[in-house]
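User: I've been trying to design a sequence by hand for this structure and keep getting stuck. Would you show me what you'd pick, starting by listing the structure so we're on the same page?

Assistant: Good idea, let's start from the same input. This is the structure you sent:
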C-alpha cells in the first residue's frame, strides 16, 4: 500500500529541512519497517521529503508509532493504555512524555514533543533514541515477538534510570564531595592557624617566659608566616599581568609599526625605481603583523610567569626544608629526654586533657 503524499501540505519549517534531516528521517523510517512497526507496516514512501513530513507532522499514525515504541520499551504501558478510552488520548500523551522523562530523553511533561509540535530535529532525535533503546535491549528477540514469552524489557532501563538518580542524589549530598568542590587546603595544625592568619593569640595561651623554647619556635614560625605573606604580595604578577607589560607592548607596537612603514616605503621605491632593473616580482607584504605582535606579547608574558613560578618553587622548597628540619630536630626540654617540638606539643596536649578530665570528675 502506498501512502498518499498529499494528505497534508508540508509546513514551512518542513520545507526548509536540510539534507541531513531528510537522510535521518529516511533512516528512521527504514528502521521502523525492519522492526515490523505496526503503524508503518505495509506503508510505502520513497521521497525523503514525504517521510520527513510524515514523522515530524502531528497525526494519528505518528502517535501510533510513538505508542508502539513506548509499549515495547515498557510493556506495562500497554495494559494501562488498554484501559483508557478514545477520549482520553491526552492521558496517553502525558504517560509517553513521562516515560521519555524517566529515560532521560526529554524534559518533564514535554507533550509538544509527543504531539509533534516540537522542532523537527528534536522529534527525529527523540524517535532515534527510542529505537536505540529498543534495539540495544538484550531481550530484543523476545521483544519483537519472535518468542511466545514477552517480558518487561524496559524494566531494566527504568531501573537503571532510578539507580543513577539515587546515585547522583547521594553523591551531591555527601559532605566529602562538597569538600572536594570547595577544598580548603591548609596543612597547618589548628593551634597554629591563628599565627598564619595574623590573629592575636589570647594572653592566656602565650608563653609566660620568653626564653622558653616553645615560645621561640612559635616566634620563628611567626616570622616564616610573615615571610610567606610578603612573598605572596611580591609575586602577585603570577596571577595577574607582568608589571610594565603595557609599556613593553606599546614599545613593541611602535617598533613594528615603524618597520611596517619602512617596508611599505621600500616597496614603493622598488616599484617606481628598481623594478625595471630586477627580474623577480614585487615581494608581498605579509598581513600577519598584528598576529606576530600578540604572539610575541603572550610569549613574553609566559616567560616572565615561568621565571616567577621557578623562583616561587625554589623559595617554597627552601622554606619546607627549614620547617622539616625544625620538626625533626630533637632537643632537651628540661626532663632529660630528647624530643621534637611536635612530640612535646602532643605531650602537653595529653597532659592538658588529663587535667581537664580530672577537673570535670
Amino acid at each position: 500500500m502506498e501512502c498518499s503524499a498529499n494528505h497534508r501540505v508540508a509546513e514551512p519549517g518542513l520545507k526548509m529541512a536540510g539534507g541531513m534531516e531528510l537522510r535521518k528521517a529516511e533512516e528512521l523510517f527504514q528502521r521502523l519497517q525492519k522492526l515490523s512497526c505496526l503503524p508503518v507496516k505495509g506503508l510505502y514512501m520513497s521521497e525523503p521529503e514525504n517521510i520527513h513530513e510524515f514523522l515530524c507532522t502531528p497525526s494519528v499514525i505518528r502517535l501510533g508509532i510513538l505508542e508502539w515504541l513506548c509499549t515495547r520499551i515498557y510493556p506495562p504501558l500497554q495494559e494501562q493504555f488498554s484501559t483508557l478510552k478514545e477520549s482520553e488520548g491526552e492521558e496517553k500523551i502525558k504517560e509517553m512524555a513521562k516515560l521519555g522523562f524517566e529515560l532521560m530523553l526529554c524534559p518533564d511533561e514535554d507533550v509538544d514533543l509527543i504531539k509533534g509540535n516540537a522542532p523537527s530535529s528534536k522529534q527525529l532525535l527523540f524517535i532515534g533514541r527510542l529505537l536505540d533503546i529498543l534495539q540495544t535491549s538484550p531481550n530484543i528477540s523476545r521483544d519483537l515477538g519472535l518468542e511466545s514469552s514477552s517480558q518487561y524489557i524496559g524494566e531494566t532501563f527504568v531501573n537503571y534510570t532510578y539507580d543513577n538518580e539515587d546515585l547522583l542524589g547521594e553523591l551531591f549530598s555527601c559532605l566529602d564531595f562538597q569538600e572536594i568542590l570547595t577544598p580548603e587546603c591548609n596543612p597547618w595544625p589548628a593551634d597554629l592557624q591563628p599565627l598564619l592568619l595574623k590573629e592575636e593569640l589570647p594572653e592566656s595561651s602565650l608563653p609566660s617566659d620568653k626564653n622558653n623554647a616553645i615560645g621561640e619556635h612559635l616566634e620563628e614560625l611567626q616570622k616564616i608566616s610573615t615571610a610567606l605573606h610578603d612573598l605572596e604580595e611580591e609575586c602577585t604578577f603570577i596571577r595577574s599581568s607582568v608589571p610594565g607589560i603595557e609599556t613593553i607592548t606599546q614599545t613593541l607596537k611602535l617598533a613594528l609599526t615603524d618597520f611596517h612603514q619602512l617596508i611599505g616605503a621600500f616597496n614603493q621605491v622598488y616599484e617606481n625605481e628598481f623594478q625595471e632593473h630586477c627580474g623577480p616580482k614585487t615581494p608581498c607584504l605579509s598581513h600577519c603583523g598584528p598576529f606576530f605582535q600578540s604572539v610575541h606579547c603572550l610569549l613574553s608574558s609566559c616567560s616572565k610567569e615561568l621565571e616567577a613560578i621557578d623562583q616561587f618553587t625554589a623559595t617554597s622548597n627552601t622554606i619546607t626544608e627549614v620547617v622539616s628540619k625544625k620538626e625533626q630536630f630533637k632537643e632537651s626540654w628540661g626532663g632529660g629526654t630528647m624530643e621534637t617540638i611536635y612530640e612535646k606539643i602532643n605531650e602537653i596536649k595529653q597532659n592538658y586533657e588529663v587535667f581537664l578530665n580530672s577537673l570535670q570528675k
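That's my pick for every position. To get oriented when you compare it with your attempt: Residues 289-328 form the longest helix (40 residues). The chain is about 65% helix and 0% strand.
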